[in-house]
Fold this protein.
Amino acid sequence: MTLTPRPKLFSRGEWPEAKRVAQLLRRETVGGALLLVGTLVALVWANSPWRELYADLSQYHVDIPALGIELSLAHWAADGLLAIFFFAVGLELKHEFVHGDLRDPAKAAVPIVAAASGVAVPAILYVITQKVMDGDTSGWAIPTATDIAFALAVLAVIGSHLPSALRSFLLTLAVVDDLIAITIIAIFFTSDLSLPMLATAIVPIVLFAVVARTNTHPWWLLLPLGVATWVLVLNSGIHATIAGVVLGLLVPAVKGADGHTLGERLEHRVRPISAGFCVPVFAFFAAGVSLVDEDIAAALTDPVTIGVIVGLVVGKVVGVLGATFIMARFTRADLDDDLDWSDVFGLSLLAGIGFTVSLLIGELAFGAGSDADAHVKLGVLTGSFLSAVLASLVLLRRNKVYARIHEEETRDDDADGVPDIYQRAADGATNRPD
């Protein structure tokens, strides 16, 4: 009698995808470092004697009346630069659905359920906190997002080499998390909807899809179509970042003669701009909370602040770790032999680092510059910092194990460019007896 082996959670994938994820996360790590710099500069400036200059810079308007655009620099960062960020998210989502972990329903189930639970539980805990403390439930969606760049920057600082399977899981989790967040923004944070403008936006969207699927047109023709879509969506009342993720999802993921998809080529151009400029600049304008004239004790005990912190630090762990554990029991799966549940616990704490999208939702929920928005920023910064510290403490305990796994996953004795462990896995799959 042959026993069927139990399925494995977080097993090592194929080399091409592992290589791609590693390259992508290296770029995000650099972006995370720049994001941290932008945040620190904003915090120092907003609490310096020149804080009024920071506020004036944020509110300085750059308008284009002919296009119906009247935006401050802070809003250009939130509505314009983050549209580029979400375009990169859309490209990554499309790749995941076609070539990545999300293409296999069985393999995709765990990160999707974990991401959904990691959104729902923080939102529920935030609402419960507001009900108990008689606070404002408008910001229920704030602690739902995970900032992958910030999380990777933390890993770089502590020098932790997560195994490739855990890195892929973290990336997939964050991408699905972003998709849910952008859906929340589209449904719950849209006001004064203009149907004619929205209908008109369909024209450049369709043309974008046609050009993207036609190899005879140069790729740069997508730029004016993308800008036209962004302008129309912005004027429709829907948050302009929605345009970015929609266009990203429309880019085909079919490999060409060079072995690369158009999405990969565009991502190669867009990702450095997004991670190296767009997100850090948004962080600079969004994270500058001034505490000079603020009662710190009152701000930290405000229901909104506490709700955000509880959602990020507790809700993400309960949601991600709890859902992963339940899925493992439901599917009768075991963790990969090299891994332990403490690794998943540390990963769940990393997921509590919510920054870029959390700050954006805070502005949409309470209005940029409001007292509640300042408390949101304080809650996001505090919750993300606590999650980062706790994740570092948990993951550092296993750093020797991660170092050994990293050595195995990068060892290439025959110097053919493919780590030996992936070749052994491929040979095992090919030569497996019936």
